[in-house]
Write a structure and sequence with these properties.
Length: 380
């Protein structure tokens, strides 16, 4: 047995999980699942934020995992001090493998891993809706210094191969996953709604995601306006925060929906919020594979999602949920109406969707596949 294999067999391999920062978000929540479920006898985790640690960084420290903040990259995407700082960290902490997430961490993490002489794994979480030539060139160049690229869906893999011109064999598809416990609630439907002061008998729509252009919230607000005009007594729960918050609040006010659209901010009680909803809607304009959608399905909610990214892989041909075109307010409103016109069908589809997520998109399944990638990379 060679020395590297012997070392891996006797002591846990040191994995550096690299982000720029750790706010509440899909990729960031995925890291929490990896940290919780990674086999500690085989892999030891160390987390680094190139910038500030963010809210989930606080949670990671509370969980007992070591975390370093470099306080760099504060003025945009270019900072010549990042790579030397990362190389120093890799050597000081005796890191065996760097696993980075999202573009800037993937860029700097792979450069630093190459200079430090350790393998790099990079995770890509979104499809390439906007093509930037400089990023494509950087990804093409860095691919030759990358042990594995992990794509959250088949569509993401296709984009990486097509636009970054990397070998298909380099890209491993590991679907995004969810912690099933976070979708559970001990509350009754009535209790969950009472906490939000939603009147009895109202219809409750909901979505979870950063308030950013990508997530398409304005089309959902406009759809609610159409539904209200047609007589539906509906409320909308928007869970999350972001740069579009004020614009979305202004849009709601202009449509007379101030008391109907509830901006709940960042929340940790997703299970309780799901319990209050009748229907979960993901109106994204582009997406990899939405963790919020998977979490809602795991909670037993019927789902409407825009036909973007890896949605079709989960929902099939409207077998496990319902799809609509992105950016189409009228189609979204019509689909919502159609769901409530056939409540028995909605319940049946929700039950099938719940089973599908529990069987195929659990954190346990995702982490076992990730461990296999780590093991293969460390052996090579």
């Amino acid at each position: 047995m060679d020395r590297k294999l012997s070392a891996v067999a006797t002591t846990p391999a040191r994995i550096l999980h690299l982000f720029v920062t750790l706010p509440v978000g899909g990729a960031e929540n995925l890291l929490l699942s990896i940290l919780r479920k990674l086999d500690a006898e085989r892999f030891s985790s160390f987390v680094c934020c190139i910038g500030e640690r963010g809210e989930l960084g606080d949670q990671i420290l509370a969980m007992g995992f070591p975390l370093a903040e470099l306080h760099l990259l504060n003025k945009g995407g270019r900072d010549g001090s990042v790579v030397p700082a990362l190389v120093d960290l890799i050597r000081r902490e005796r890191i065996d493998l760097v696993h980075s997430h999202l573009y800037h961490a993937n860029f700097y993490g792979r450069l630093a891993a190459r200079k430090a002489g350790v393998p790099a794994v990079a995770s890509i979480h979104n499809t390439y809706t906007r093509h930037k030539l400089h990023r494509q060139l950087a990804n093409w160049y860095l691919a030759r210094h990358t042990a594995a690229l992990i794509a959250g869906s088949e569509e993401i893999k296709q984009d990486v191969v097509r636009y970054d011109h990397v070998p298909e064999s380099l890209v491993e598809v590991i679907p995004n996953s969810v912690d099933l416990v976070r979708s559970h609630s001990e509350l009754s439907r009535e209790q969950a709604r009472e906490r939000l002061r939603i009147p009895e008998g109202a219809t409750v729509l909901g979505t979870v995601g950063r308030l950013e252009e990508q997530k398409g919230h304005r089309y959902l607000i406009e759809a609610l306006f159409l539904l209200r005009q047609r007589g539906m007594d509906a409320y909308l729960l928007l869970v999350g925060d972001g740069r579009e918050a004020q614009a979305l609040k202004a849009l709601s006010a202009s449509l007379g929906l101030e008391r109907r659209v509830m901006f709940l901010g960042t929340r940790s009680d997703l299970g309780d919020l799901f319990r209050a909803m009748d229907l979960f809607i993901m109106p994204s304009l582009w997406e990899g594979l939405s963790l919020a959608m998977l979490s809602a399905m795991a909670a037993g909610l019927p789902v409407i999602a825009t036909a973007v990214g890896g949605v079709w892989q989960v929902l099939g041909d409207d077998e496990y949920g319902f799809s609509v075109p992105p950016g189409d307010t009228a189609a979204l409103a019509a689909r919502i109406e159609a769901c409530f016109a056939k409540p028995e069908e909605m319940v049946r589809i929700a039950a099938k969707g719940q089973g599908r997520v529990r069987e195929n998109y659990s954190d346990e399944a995702m982490v076992r596949r990730l461990e296999a990638v780590y093991a293969r990379v460390l052996k090579s």
